[in-house]
Protein backbone atom coordinates (compact mmCIF):
# COMPACT_ATOMS: atom_id res chain seq x y z
CA UNK A 1 0.00 0.00 0.00
CA UNK A 2 1.40 3.40 -0.92
CA UNK A 3 3.39 2.65 -4.06
CA UNK A 4 7.14 2.80 -4.58
CA UNK A 5 9.38 3.90 -1.70
CA UNK A 6 10.70 7.43 -2.24
CA UNK A 7 13.21 7.71 0.61
CA UNK A 8 11.07 10.04 2.75
CA UNK A 9 10.05 9.24 6.31
CA UNK A 10 6.41 10.01 7.05
CA UNK A 11 5.10 11.49 10.27
CA UNK A 12 1.36 10.91 10.31
CA UNK A 13 -0.55 13.50 12.32
CA UNK A 14 -4.25 12.78 11.76
CA UNK A 15 -5.18 14.97 14.76
CA UNK A 16 -4.21 18.00 12.60
CA UNK A 17 -7.13 17.31 10.25
CA UNK A 18 -9.57 18.75 12.82
CA UNK A 19 -7.60 22.04 12.78
CA UNK A 20 -7.46 22.08 8.97
CA UNK A 21 -11.19 21.45 8.64
CA UNK A 22 -12.07 24.03 11.32
CA UNK A 23 -9.79 26.69 9.80
CA UNK A 24 -11.38 26.46 6.38
CA UNK A 25 -14.93 26.67 7.75
CA UNK A 26 -14.39 29.35 10.42
CA UNK A 27 -16.48 32.51 10.03
CA UNK A 28 -14.38 35.59 9.18
CA UNK A 29 -13.45 37.84 12.10
CA UNK A 30 -15.19 41.21 11.85
CA UNK A 31 -13.01 43.92 13.41
CA UNK A 32 -12.99 44.71 17.11
CA UNK A 33 -16.07 42.62 17.79
CA UNK A 34 -14.37 39.30 17.04
CA UNK A 35 -10.69 39.86 16.31
CA UNK A 36 -8.34 39.06 19.22
CA UNK A 37 -5.70 41.37 17.72
CA UNK A 38 -8.17 44.29 17.55
CA UNK A 39 -9.31 43.64 21.10
CA UNK A 40 -5.76 44.25 22.34
CA UNK A 41 -5.76 47.82 21.02
CA UNK A 42 -7.85 49.40 23.80
CA UNK A 43 -7.32 46.88 26.59
CA UNK A 44 -4.85 46.58 29.45
CA UNK A 45 -1.36 46.01 28.04
CA UNK A 46 -0.14 43.55 30.67
CA UNK A 47 -3.33 41.47 30.62
CA UNK A 48 -3.14 41.26 26.82
CA UNK A 49 0.64 40.80 26.57
CA UNK A 50 1.28 44.07 24.71
CA UNK A 51 4.93 44.99 25.33
CA UNK A 52 5.18 48.20 23.28
CA UNK A 53 2.94 50.67 21.45
CA UNK A 54 4.00 52.74 18.47
CA UNK A 55 2.06 55.30 16.47
CA UNK A 56 0.66 52.89 13.85
CA UNK A 57 1.56 49.46 15.24
CA UNK A 58 2.04 47.65 18.52
CA UNK A 59 4.19 44.72 19.69
CA UNK A 60 2.58 41.79 21.51
CA UNK A 61 3.77 38.46 22.87
CA UNK A 62 2.23 35.51 21.04
CA UNK A 63 -0.23 33.75 23.36
CA UNK A 64 0.84 30.40 21.86
CA UNK A 65 4.58 30.98 21.35
CA UNK A 66 6.96 28.83 19.37
CA UNK A 67 9.70 30.00 21.73
CA UNK A 68 9.89 32.30 24.77
CA UNK A 69 9.80 35.89 23.56
CA UNK A 70 7.86 35.09 20.35
CA UNK A 71 6.54 38.53 19.37
CA UNK A 72 4.07 39.80 16.79
CA UNK A 73 4.13 43.26 15.25
CA UNK A 74 0.53 44.33 14.47
CA UNK A 75 -0.99 47.44 12.93
CA UNK A 76 -3.82 48.95 14.93
CA UNK A 77 -6.05 48.89 11.83
CA UNK A 78 -7.93 45.69 11.05
CA UNK A 79 -6.35 44.79 7.71
CA UNK A 80 -5.48 41.32 6.52
CA UNK A 81 -2.95 41.81 3.76
CA UNK A 82 0.50 43.38 3.69
CA UNK A 83 -0.54 45.07 0.44
CA UNK A 84 -3.24 46.96 2.39
CA UNK A 85 -0.75 48.53 4.82
CA UNK A 86 -0.08 52.22 4.47
CA UNK A 87 3.50 53.35 3.97
CA UNK A 88 3.55 54.51 7.59
CA UNK A 89 2.28 51.14 8.88
CA UNK A 90 4.72 49.21 6.71
CA UNK A 91 7.65 51.40 7.77
CA UNK A 92 6.82 51.20 11.46
CA UNK A 93 6.47 47.41 11.24
CA UNK A 94 10.02 47.30 9.92
CA UNK A 95 11.36 49.65 12.59
CA UNK A 96 9.59 47.71 15.36
CA UNK A 97 10.89 44.42 13.96
CA UNK A 98 14.45 45.74 14.18
CA UNK A 99 13.79 47.01 17.69
CA UNK A 100 12.26 43.67 18.73
CA UNK A 101 15.40 41.90 17.49
CA UNK A 102 17.65 44.21 19.54
CA UNK A 103 15.46 43.87 22.63
CA UNK A 104 15.23 40.06 22.42
CA UNK A 105 18.97 39.74 21.83
CA UNK A 106 19.69 41.86 24.91
CA UNK A 107 17.04 40.21 27.12
CA UNK A 108 17.50 36.57 26.16
CA UNK A 109 20.79 36.18 24.30
CA UNK A 110 19.07 34.80 21.21
CA UNK A 111 21.42 33.65 18.44
CA UNK A 112 19.01 33.96 15.51
CA UNK A 113 15.45 34.74 14.43
CA UNK A 114 12.61 33.52 12.27
CA UNK A 115 10.78 36.57 10.95
CA UNK A 116 7.79 36.48 8.67
CA UNK A 117 4.13 36.83 7.85
CA UNK A 118 1.61 34.16 6.95
CA UNK A 119 -0.80 35.71 4.48
CA UNK A 120 -4.29 34.29 4.03
CA UNK A 121 -5.76 31.11 5.45
CA UNK A 122 -4.05 29.02 2.77
CA UNK A 123 -0.73 30.72 3.63
CA UNK A 124 -0.99 29.43 7.19
CA UNK A 125 -2.28 32.51 9.00
CA UNK A 126 -4.22 31.55 12.13
CA UNK A 127 -5.73 35.05 12.24
CA UNK A 128 -5.67 35.92 8.55
CA UNK A 129 -7.96 38.93 8.93
CA UNK A 130 -5.47 40.99 10.97
CA UNK A 131 -1.99 41.53 9.58
CA UNK A 132 0.84 40.58 11.92
CA UNK A 133 4.53 39.84 11.55
CA UNK A 134 6.15 37.16 13.70
CA UNK A 135 9.54 37.69 15.34
CA UNK A 136 10.60 34.35 16.80
CA UNK A 137 13.88 34.19 18.74
CA UNK A 138 16.00 31.08 18.14
CA UNK A 139 18.93 29.51 19.97
CA UNK A 140 21.33 26.77 18.98
CA UNK A 141 19.66 23.46 19.85
CA UNK A 142 16.22 24.91 20.64
CA UNK A 143 14.37 22.56 18.26
CA UNK A 144 14.01 19.05 19.60
CA UNK A 145 11.79 15.98 19.53
CA UNK A 146 9.21 17.12 22.10
CA UNK A 147 6.80 18.93 19.73
CA UNK A 148 6.98 16.15 17.15
CA UNK A 149 6.92 13.02 19.29
CA UNK A 150 5.44 14.18 22.59
CA UNK A 151 3.09 16.89 21.28
CA UNK A 152 4.67 19.03 24.00
CA UNK A 153 6.39 22.40 23.89
CA UNK A 154 9.00 23.16 26.53
CA UNK A 155 8.82 26.85 27.40
CA UNK A 156 11.25 27.66 30.22
CA UNK A 157 9.62 30.96 31.16
CA UNK A 158 6.08 32.06 32.06
CA UNK A 159 4.40 34.53 29.69
CA UNK A 160 4.05 37.09 32.47
CA UNK A 161 7.79 36.92 33.23
CA UNK A 162 8.58 37.25 29.52
CA UNK A 163 6.16 40.20 29.25
CA UNK A 164 7.88 42.00 32.14
CA UNK A 165 11.40 41.50 30.79
CA UNK A 166 10.56 42.38 27.18
CA UNK A 167 8.34 45.40 27.93
CA UNK A 168 10.96 46.78 30.36
CA UNK A 169 13.62 46.36 27.66
CA UNK A 170 11.46 48.17 25.08
CA UNK A 171 11.18 51.13 27.49
CA UNK A 172 14.95 51.11 28.03
CA UNK A 173 15.44 51.10 24.25
CA UNK A 174 13.53 54.40 23.80
Automatic annotation (TrEMBL):
Family annotation (CDD domains): FHIT (cd01275)
Q: Which residues bind substrate?
A: 62, 134
User: Domain HIT spans what residues?
Assistant: 36-145
Q: Which InterPro entries match?
A: AP-4-A_phosphorylase, FHIT, HIT-like, HIT-like_sf
Name the SUPFAM superfamilies on file.
HIT-like
Gene3D superfamilies registered for this protein in UniProt: HIT-like
Keyword set, alphabetical order: Nucleotide-binding
Q: Please report, in chain numbering, the residue ranges of the motif Histidine triad motif.
A: 130-134
Protein name per Swiss-Prot or TrEMBL: HIT domain-containing protein
Q: What lineage is this protein's organism placed in?
A: Bacteria, Bacillati, Actinomycetota, Actinomycetes, Micrococcales
Amino acid sequence: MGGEPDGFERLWTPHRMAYIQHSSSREPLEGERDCPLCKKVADDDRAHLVVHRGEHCYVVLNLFPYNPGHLMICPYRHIGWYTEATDAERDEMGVLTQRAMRVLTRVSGTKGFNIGMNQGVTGGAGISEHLHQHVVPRWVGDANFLPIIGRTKALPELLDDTWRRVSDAFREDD
